[in-house]
Amino acid sequence: MKKTIIILTLGVAFLMHSCDFLSIEPENMINPRDAFKNPSSIKSAMATLYLKIPVEDFNYNPMGGGTMPPGYGFNFRDNHSGFSTSFYTDESLHSTGTYAIRSIQPVGGYWDYEGIRNVNTMIGTLPAVQGLGEVDLNKYLSECHFIRAYMYFALARRYGGVPLITHVQESTEDLFVPRSTEKDTWDFILEECDRAIAYLPATWGGLGEKRATVWAAYALKSRVALHAASVAKYWNRAQLIGEAVEKGLVGGLTSADAEEWYGQSIEASSKIIEESGKSLYRPTPSNPVEAATNYQRIFEKPEDAGVEVIFCKAYTDGTTTLRQGHSTDVYFQPAQTRTSFHIWGRFNPTLDLVDLYEDYSDDGTGSSAKLVTRTGGGSEDEYVLNPGEMTGSSFSGYRKYDNPADIFRDKDARLHASILYPGSSWKSVDIVMQGGYIAPDGTPTVYKAGSVEVGDNTYYTYGGATPDRYSGFADIGQGGNFSSTGFSLRKFLNEANSVEGRVLSSTTEFIDFRLAEIYLNYAEATLESSHGDDTKAAQYLNMIRKRAGHTDNIPLTLGNVLKERRVELAFEGHRYWDLVRRREYHSEFDNRIRKSLVPVLDLTESTPKYIFVRANNYYDNDVNGMTFYNHFYYLPIPGISTNNLVQNPQY
Q1: 395-440, pLDDT tens digit by residue?
Q2: For 493-520, how does the pLDDT look when each residue is reduced to its tens digit (9 = 90+)?
Q3: Structure pTM?
Q4: Where are the domains of the chain?
Q5: Long-range contacts (CB closer than 8 Å, 24 or more residues apart) made by 581-584
Q6: For residues 605 and 613, is the Cβ–Cβ distance under 8 A?
Q7: What whole-number distance in Å separates Cα of residue 34 and Cα of residue 36?
């Protein structure tokens, strides 16, 4: 019996340049037999296919959706505390740890063969639409191949080899399609990218401007090929055994595969760099302050940064339009500027990331510049297990600062544009992140509420008398809405707009592909293979840094490129998959305890000073660190009791 496929038109789409919505009036539902009676109805059906693209955007829940639909956590808007793949990495944590998960776990699954069937229906039906010219037909088909490539990419990087279904299955055929090898799956996805590239236009014009272009297809190919090549080169770093390995359903890739796919990534990246007309947004700032403003603007207003943006997703206000919008500005607003909603401050960047940013010494090396917390050359690699247990003598040897922001003064502009740190100015409010104080008699009070009077002034543990006057460390160990790392999110939040205290009220666009990533893809693939041009790769690397206000040229090394990926693309969803594709997760997260920076107000001085304690994050320390196991590189295949598929190792 054939399945009837119902296509819902929700009027949501991915966009080029303007990052606005496709102008489609929502309809209740249409049967595909009716959807393609004439060309004008195709656009409505296409809008639904765009909605099904598994982009890990603001509404993606890496823990999976509550009812675990085929797309698991994609387009999951009932996300009532805020999630991010960044929480699974060394970039950031949820304010209660990795949302009470006591080990690093793989992101939520994706098994949307219903969505793939919808795309296959479109591909199979479009050629029969009367009145649809060949040029338009080919464009629509290329759009479908782009969407199908994206869907299979989401499958492959989670499961390895998967069933490759390219048409609507009939009841007369064998519906139990076996898994293809991992190599064949990656080759298929790259071929799908080529089919998308074949007829997608460089620009659609008019309302169509807001759909995927050929540059989006090249960007997808650049990312897919780099991921596949990295897995091919490094999959043996995490040895697995079992039937899936023996049959090549996971792993089994060769250095020749890696070389081929690195070359494809370079070729796709080069097409965008040399022919798209794209450029970095405001690439030559006059100083680091301007650089920070420019960088922040990219994510506040992607439509203004269209010169760099290749592909993005837009939203309408979900408080007025059913099931639209996202809640980033609600869930992740620091406590001092929180809305009336009962959840805030859930995104906590780590000291691990903050230490990675350079300063502006610009000595030609590109070396990271750790924050200076100790005097006399004291070690910046020592961390307190629990600052709440420190005694007065424990605070000797710390450097003292007049203002909390002074320790960050000369750090990379992208830090200032991405992270709210102690002393940051946000929405005309000085952000207070304080974990304690040292009383005039030398007695510390850290990680527990308290106050002390000094002269006519009263000083509080967390820097203020009430919770609306501070943003960090309150309720430590009990969970809640205050940073546990000493940092809060700035990137993606809109500083100029007031935020309504309702979920789904944010409309800031999510950038899926931008030119900076393509530059870094090219540079990494060049260093990892015999393809590419070292001179160009070095140029692209340094162009990104100079957009951040740096003036030197650093050497093209793999370490410099990977470090630049982390600071340039922080929180954009890349770090998790970079650790996966390069098979570095299990070594980076082997009882890994991520780090916090705890400002403490020193009242033993005649004028109060600030010291900064490097500390184990409370929640990571509480569980003796976070671990990523080898078999997490592949997720368990769902439904094997009925679909007859070979299961992945150790599930």
Answers
A1: 999 999 999 999 999 999 999 999 999 999 999 999 999 999 999 9
A2: 999 888 778 889 899 999 999 999 999 9
A3: 0.93
A4: 328-480+592-615
A5: 581/157, 581/226, 581/227, 581/230, 581/231, 581/234, 582/230, 582/234, 583/230, 583/231, 583/234, 583/235, 583/236, 583/237, 583/238, 583/633, 584/234, 584/237
A6: no
A7: 6
